[in-house]
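Supplementary Note 3. Input sequence used for the single-chain structure prediction.
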Amino acid sequence: MSNEEWAIGQPMPTPSDPCKNVFEESEYEMILGHANRVYGKGTKSDPLVLWMNLPEQIDRDMIWSHNNFARAAAKSVGLTHAWIIKERHSKTAARGEDGEKLYGPAGRVMKEDDMHITVRLGSGIYDCNLSAHIYVDLDAAGNPVEFMKEPSRRHSRSSSSSSSRGPITFWPWRIARTRQTPKTGVSLGAQWESYANTGPYLDTYRPEGSGARRHLSPKCRFARPDTGEEAKELEAMKMRVDGLWAEYKKSVDEMKEAGGEPSREEKGRLLLMAEKIGTLEREIDSFREVQ
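The predicted structure, written as discrete structure tokens, is reproduced below.
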């Protein structure tokens, strides 16, 4: 990855393999057959999110929130794929004056950074164009909830006091190496795209079998006996969607009244709200399907 930042409006870097070494290659091919770590269809309107690392915890809200930010980041630059390299964290690799990463006796030298999600963004399953840090604020449960505003940054603020680069910092992704692992593509069965946005982490579809026999089954096969609890959960999600829609419409109206071109922060906030709404609406629809 280059240490020179990429800015929206510049030519999109030529894509490279999303894996930086042979270890990532073999892990990636396994991920493409793992229903817990693939979400989305791989289009500009429905970016494909792939979890390159195993999350610290299997929690629906945590997965939802990271997927929403990754999808919003991909849409902000017109790309179709997002790889989550590391969920929210506050460390980054230290670099020397030449831009190269620094190493010590214990390995890479790390330094403090603002809370962020590390992602890669691209135009195909094996085509990565950008690396990025998505700077985020967390809720009480430790899940990403909003983009971090520029004044809140302590370590990653724009070098210019009169401008902001927005809540996402991008770098060109350039890997000059030859892939050693054969490409297999997504291997989740013929109908995997039907379930692409309601994976097992979302408690809607869960994998059965293994290897080539793996397929996805509806949640009703695993439904909890207390249907009253599911009804409460469904009602709570509906209320969250209504609240988000009201907030989204209010923000759009305020931008129209203000006139001019919305800032990068404002555009990002709208993209994120749209992703939150879409995620909840898909889960609500899945509840209805299994009733």
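Residues 159-163, 199-226 have pLDDT under 50 and may be disordered. The radius of gyration is 20 Å.
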